[in-house]
Queue: 2 jobs
Job 1
Amino acid sequence: MISLDALQQRIQKIEEEIQTVCNRSGRNRQDVTIVAVTKQVSAKRTKEVIELGITDLGENRPEGLLGKKESILSEGLTWHFIGNVQSRKVKDIINQVDFLHSLDRMSLAKEIQKRATSPVDCFVQVNVSGEESKSGLQPEEVEEFIIRLAEYDKIRVVGLMTMAPFTQDEEWIRTIFRSLRELRDRMASKKLEHAPCTLLSMGMSNDYVIAIEEGATHVRIGTALVGTESEGDE
Ligand SMILES: *Cc1c(COP(=O)(O)O)cnc(C)c1O
């Protein structure tokens, strides 16, 4: 585990970098939310990042989300579920999250409709890169999917989410993020009541700068921000 000081420096460095990218690309810092992905670290480490000013937390497994929520009772936090959700687990988490980043199929929408006690803010996950290992709708399926969600009054489509391909090729990553933004713009322009679709969840530790340049409103940063439990001190 790294020290609290090292953690603070790390958060500050990312904060400064995000401010710089925002300035350079003419964006408001307030329009970019850092979601600290704490899936690889303990509740103790998570409490430390909260003390250092982080308010948005992301988990990708139900056990992780519920465990953290149980041991962290701070108010004013926003909880993001960013992983695949098995339909049978929906009931465990859906009323515990502020945002679901991984709505990717109609059967999941049906289960949310059945289990949610109030409308849930969802990102529709899109597999822009087309990699077989990735979940998400194909880009050409997104419009029809979102239109059909109008029947589900427990789902509010706030935006789109994607994961960049595993590659060093930054231009390829940029192309993927840009395609998602264009798709988001198209959906937002329809002004659907159930689907304002103004937000963009994209960018992780290795590519959040590119993502912000391309319009990300939510960057999901894990290892670069909170580290992992097993790493040594710096
Ligand atoms: C783990 C994870 C992240 C964070 O990944 P890092 O590379 O550690 O920043 C972001 N998004 C999703 C969906 C994840 O599963």
Job 2
Amino acid sequence: MTNTIFNNLPNKEGYFGQYGGVHLDSPKLQQELAKLNDFYQKIKDDHEFINELKYIRKHFQGRPTPISYARNLSEKIAGARIYLKREDLNHTGAHKLNHCMGEALLAKKMGKKKLIAETGAGQHGVAIATAAAYFALECEVHMGEIDIVKQRPNVQKMEILGAKVIPVTFGGRSLKEAVDSAFASYLQEAETALYTIGSVVGPHPFPQMVRNFQSIVGLEAREQFLEITNGKLPDYVIACVGGGSNAIGIFKAFIEDEDVNLVGVEPLGKMKNAKQNIIGEHAATILFGEKASAQGFSSLFLLDDKGQPAPVHSVSSGLDYPGVGPEHALLHETGRATYVGINDKDCLSAFFELSKLEGIIPALESSHAVAHAIKLAPSIPDKNILVNLSGRGDKDLDFVLGNC
Ligand SMILES: *Cc1c(COP(=O)(O)O)cnc(C)c1O
């Protein structure tokens, strides 16, 4: 398989190899998604749409975000040089606004009045509430009760931004249930509302749409990296993987560069290492998942013994999801990207290390990617590592300080 093949994916039915598609029982939901897909495929290459998005990225989000060389960290390790793509500096403090502004602009163009979303860490909720405010759309965010407690500051932000936060009280009361709840709500109001997913997951066209909106991260990073290093590409591009949107966003621009190693980092949670697989203690879907169809699409999922999406754990709620984007499942299957695991403990060390050495407090999600870079760097002197620093850690301070 040549790498260029990735450029033509997904196919018309929304498949990346054997993963993706639309796996939904409700004919009404299928119909709505087909309408959304028709609309999106037409507008995605429209000049006016692209120019509006460009304007928003520059003048509202503050893009391009820079790449920072982590000098102190790199010199301390004395191995590879570590660079950070600073999505923590994107407006609202994470990469998520990249696809939320795109989805909200799309909703506006479709004549919708309202955005419906789910959120885990609250980052997608804040980003979608921000986008809704910008476009003067109503906004309803479904969020697990457990996450509401864990991510208080983000809940407050959503409410200040004018969104309605709906607590999800069934099942594990976390991200997976929030997705189910948001879908149910969308089904009631599909005429006037648009469901806006938080990652490259869910039924077609969401994985393609979110990837395309996030690909700005890699496009910027590739150009910036070439400039900083006088024409070199990174040897490694590392990103954390929950659903996989920040990872695919930065990977996309390097997929055809065969010498660039793409590494996705999954949360091993409470486990010591990836030799263990204790259900409920991690959320490493690619490392331990199996092919299944759930939440509207086919991909790798962590399943319990009844074949249902399994309970998951990670110190970072944003990675706490038992599925993964279908494109990652294919990148894994073809070997174009490698997936590794980092546990809670190493993630927290990296969180403090980067804060102290570089003056950048990373999100716990992003700290997984930083932790892997710190692990890898000593063994590859003179190489260059580019880490996607997907977000900032302000939202995690209460949790980190309460648990250390
Ligand atoms: C939500 C989130 C993630 C995980 O989502 P992906 O879709 O895997 O990128 C990672 N980092 C931050 C800061 C997040 O908010």
